[in-house]
Amino acid sequence: MTSIRETSCAGIPAGLENQTFHLQWRPRARVAGFAIASLLAGSSLPALAQTRSASGPVLEEIVVTAQKVEQKLQNVPVAVTAFTPAQITDQHIDTIQDLAFLVPNFYSIEESGSGNAAVYTLRGITTPQFSFQLDSGIGVYLDGVYIGRDLGTQFEAADIQRIEVLRGPQGTLFGRNTTGGAINYISATPSGEWGGKQDFTFGNQGRFRTKTRVEFPEFDGISVLVSYAHDQTDGYVKNLAGGTVIHYGAATQGRFGDVAAADEFGGDRADAFYAAVRYRGDNLLLDYKFDYTDDTSVQQATQVLGFSPGPGGDFAKLLFSLQPALGGGNTVSLTRLGAVSEPLQGPTDAQIWGNSLTASYDINDWLTVKNILAYREFHQTNVGSQFDGNTLRTPPGFGLGPGGSLFTLQGTLAQRDQHQVSEELQFIGRMESFDWQAGFFYFDEQGTQYNPYFILRSLPNNTLPPLNRFTDFNDNAYIDNASYALFAQGTWHATDSLNLTAGVRQTWDERYDREYDLAGPPVQVFNPSFTDADWQVLAEYHWTPDIMSYAKVGTGHLTGGTYHGTPFSPEHLRAYEIGVKSEFFDHRVRFNADVFYSDYRNRQIEYYNGVVHFLNAGHEIIRGAEAELDVIPIERARVFANFGFNHGSTNQQTISISGTQVQVGGLVKGLFDPEYTFSGGVQYDFADFSWGGHIQAEIDAQYRSKVFTQISSNEVVGGISSALESVVNPAGFWMLNARVGLVDVPLGNTTGKIALWGKNLTDVQEVEYGVDAGFTIDGHFMQPRTFGVDLSIDFGGPASTQEAAPAAYVPPPIVAPAPAPKNYLVFFDFNKSDLTPQAVTIVNQAAANAGPAKATQLTVTGHTDTVGSDAYNMRLSRRRAESVAAQLEKDGIPASEIQIVAKGKRDPLVPTADGVKEPQNRRVQIVYDGGPIS
After folding, report:
1. Whole-angstrom Cα distance, residue 838 to residue 766?
2. I want to staple 108 with a disulfide (CB 3.0 to 4.6 A). Which of 31, 120, 139, 376 is the partner?
3. What distance separates the 2 farthest-apart alpha carbons in the chain?
4. DSSP label at 70?
5. How far is residue 262 from each of residues 259, 295, 346, measured CA to CA in Å?
6. Are the C-beta atoms of 384 and 413 separated by less than 8 Å?
7. What is the torsional sign of CA 178, 108, 755, 202?
8. Are 800 and 692 in contact (CB under 8 A)?
9. How far apart are CA 790 and CA 89, in angstroms?
């Protein structure tokens, strides 16, 4: 498929007949610099939609902001996977952990000990435990706003328009704490047109979800969108100790009162609200966005799988052996149970909210100023978490409390509150052969954490005695962290095919950590500061308009700090990457792939020996490869797949921890990080029914190789049985999912769909999260098979019409030879106004045919897509038309015979949602005076 084609129908295309033209007799103008023009390219994998061209279905184009500016996905020299609104809905992507298997080298699970927290890995980088003194090496952003705490990322996706997962360090444009990559959420923006959507989901395990979106018409430049979502799921493991009331008040200085144990494990109930307001001025665009999530959940059922090696495990075995005589439980199982008994396990409540104001102002054609100001908060209360998997009773004569009382090997409570403010000022420049960005970033967060651990505690009369600062453990802290950064990145378009990019970012971190004892005044205060610089250089070469390769090297860092009085250094990662982005066969095949080599130094890891330690583990090398494939093999069919491989090798650095020499290099090996990931499937859209609508079917399979889920078997070889080893660190497995539905059903002024779906259809039962708790080895299992039905209605759009019945056959008339064309279409790349050599050939043909067609006037009409301000798009339309007109002048057409018509974003030929752009809007039309012949 070429970047420019002649129209194939007579007359002016639909959408141009009744539009108001802004006319101008065009003086002679310069031809713009080098040319890039293409008709269609770019999509995410797996993309679940397609558009059509004259030659048949083609892959959908998606615009991303992986480099802080809007670009076609296929033109971005970054390993990035993007998800459109349809994919987010169909794949039930509600939180980060739902992205597991859908992104190469990305894996996510629910963390044990909290019902609304996740552990996720990307290219071998794993998020740490949820202590306020520790940061994650995978940055999460919402509308360009950095979210400082992992717990603050578990918002409900009430109205997310697009999700982008950027793999590899993003230290230049995104900043610190992106050694593994970045996850970028983009919420919906108002379209300015009346409309709405209603979604319902019903499923097993009491699943019910409703989501309502309403958009209001634009008024005086202001557009508004509001959304509400409710999502609930029952638990799937019964708590035999449900309803047991534990009295925490005295032990926690009144922070917790009486708490009843949950009746089921794995349940969740969330309500989310979202609002967006957009103002469009001539050169000014303002976006205000607000999101709120209220979530109550219960963590997964924790089972005892075995006993820890060493004295702690020996004591737990003895305690369990005494339980039958004491009236307690001693269940140990390597298979998933339908019921466990945990009297100290209560719910987790979280409230997450935030707002942001993004202002973008086009100073002139080549300079835009953008500012993102945001404030966010989250509050979490985790009412009880234990790792016993049983109702235990205190053994008499052990000095642990009254015999027969409720007992726990260890338990924990948590209250966490955090708020943050961030400011980012960006300058975005666009020149003939050089594009650049520069800016300033500021981030400040404050938070309090009350998180005591109580160990070997008897609870007489179900009451927790006062915590003991000598035998119990605390993770109580107040933090006040600030970060400042200056950054700049520029791209030189060296030739028509070669782009060279370089960027740098300087970051200053100031951290304040005041750690409290269990009950008393602050005992430790730390105030470290760090300075780091990150950089990136890359080269991209466009072999054809549809094939691009790139090579780059860049760095990222994760800031340092202190944890329980022990300092740890920043970690640094330098990554080398080579990749290709390509499309073939008229945009029916897309193949993107990359290989990378990461040099990882001072990696921050956790170590548990009865107390959690945080330390640097030395040097690691991570090698990997990724590939994404999307194919339209035949009409109405799609095949999609993604593959990831990463392998880390470490040194065997030995350090002293609590007087014990430990080889910390071994602790790094693949923790929650599969070496291989794969996802692939087939989708087929059957032919439309006579009344509209059609059946769509999809089946996909997902694979994850072996992971190490807990420290003990990762570090102590032979310390546990081979049977326990195989369960806690499960081998690779496949999962099967399917979906079939009736879609695009006309319902008067609306359209609807209904779809049946199932996940984990073969009911794979593997341990998802395992931990050596010092006494027992515990874990929870994967969620069992789920299935349900989705219902959706889009309203507010134009009424659909039924196709007329085919007329009786009439022999075609004899057709005379076609005259020379009088109507040509020239298509442009996103945000570009230059012509390719192929484009010049077609414009030359239009000029050559002007004589035989007896043309006395050529009208050149420019159009744009719907991104950016009205003023910017009007200028872009004019530049596109001027590029074509300048070439016509070169071919001998007098300037006096050329008219320029510019169309702005308020007059798009094909309306599209944000994030999915329509190349038909990105064109120039050449029309001869006096003739509609195409």
Report:
1. 56
2. 120
3. 110
4. -
5. 9, 15, 5
6. yes
7. negative
8. yes
9. 9
Instruction: Note the pLDDT of residue 904.
Output: 79
877 three-state secondary structure? helix
How far is Cα 269 from Cα 297, in angstroms, rounded to an integer?
6
Q: How far is residue 380's CA from residue 351's CA, in Å, rounded to a whole number?
A: 7
Q: Are strands 776-781 and 303-307 parallel, antiparallel or unpaired?
A: antiparallel
Classified as helix, coil or strand, 728 is: helix
CA distances to 66, 73, 322 from 70, in Å = 8, 9, 65
Question: Which amino acid appears at position 528 of this protein?
Answer: P
Token readout for 721 is: 């049985």
Residue 798, preceding bond cis, omega within 30 degrees?
Answer: no
Q: Which of 636, 754, 752, 744 is nearest to 692 (CA)?
A: 744
Q: Which residue has the tokens 């009208």?
A: 859
* Cβ partners under 8 Å of residue 644, min gap 6: 103, 104, 105, 106, 624, 625, 626, 676, 677, 678
What are the strands of the beta sheet with 767-772, ordered from one edge? Answer: 303-307, 776-781, 767-772
**Which of 552, 555, 514, 506 has the alpha carbon at shortest distance from 531?**
506
Q: Which residues partner with 701 through β-bridges? A: 680, 736
484: tokens are 């400042």
Cβ atoms < 10 Å from Cβ of 663? 15
pLDDT digits (tens, 9 = 90+) for 520-577: 667 788 999 999 999 999 999 999 989 999 999 999 999 998 887 788 899 999 999 9
Token readout for 691 is 């009344």
pLDDT in tens, 850-859: 877 667 777 8
> C-alpha angle 378/449/133, rounded to 5°?
95
CA triple 39-43-48, angle to 5 deg: 115
Instruction: Write the single-letter amino acid at 540.
Output: E
300 CB-near residues (< 8 Å, 6+ apart): 110, 112, 115, 237, 265, 266, 768, 769, 780, 781
Q: Strand locations in 602-720, DSSP E?
A: 604-608, 612-616, 619-631, 637-650, 654-657, 660-663, 676-685, 694-704
Separation of CA 537 from chain center = 25
Pairwise CA distance, residues 776 & 315, whole Å = 10
pLDDT band at 166 (very low <50, low <70, confident <90, very high): very high
Residues 6+ apart with CB under 8 A from 507: 175, 176, 483, 484, 485, 531, 532, 533, 534, 557, 559
DSSP classification of residue 664: G
CA 525 to chain centre: 36
CA distance 757 to 207: 13
Share of the chain above pLDDT 90, in %: 46
Helix%, strand%, coil% for the chain, nearest 5: 10, 50, 40
Confidence of residue 870 (pLDDT cuts 50, 70, 90): low
Which one, of 545, 683, 548, lies nearest residue 40 by Cα?
545
First to last CA, the chain: 19
The rounded distance, in Å, linking the Cα atoms of 676 and 669 is: 14
Q: What is the DSSP string of 23-34?
A: EEEPPP-PPPSS
Smallest CA-to-CA distance from 676 within 706, 633, 714 is with 706
**In 204-327, beta strands by DSSP E:** 207-219, 222-233, 237-239, 245-247, 258-260, 264-265, 268-280, 284-297, 303-307
How far is the C-alpha of 401 from the C-alpha of 502, rounded, in Å? 65
787, burial (CB in 10 Å: exposed 0-12, middle 13-18, buried 19+): middle
| Single-letter code of the amino acid located at 736 | L
Helix or strand (DSSP H, E) at 455: strand 452-459
**pTM of the predicted model, to two decimals?**
0.82
Q: Which of 60-64, 296-300, 624-628 bottoms out in mean pLDDT, i.e. has the lowest? A: 60-64
Helices (H) and strands (E) in the chain, counts: 6, 59
Q: Which residues are CB-neighbours of 305 under 8 A, at least 6 positions away? A: 332, 333, 334, 724, 727, 728, 767, 770, 776, 777, 778, 779
Nearest Cα to Cα of residue 425 among 438, 440, 443, 442: 440
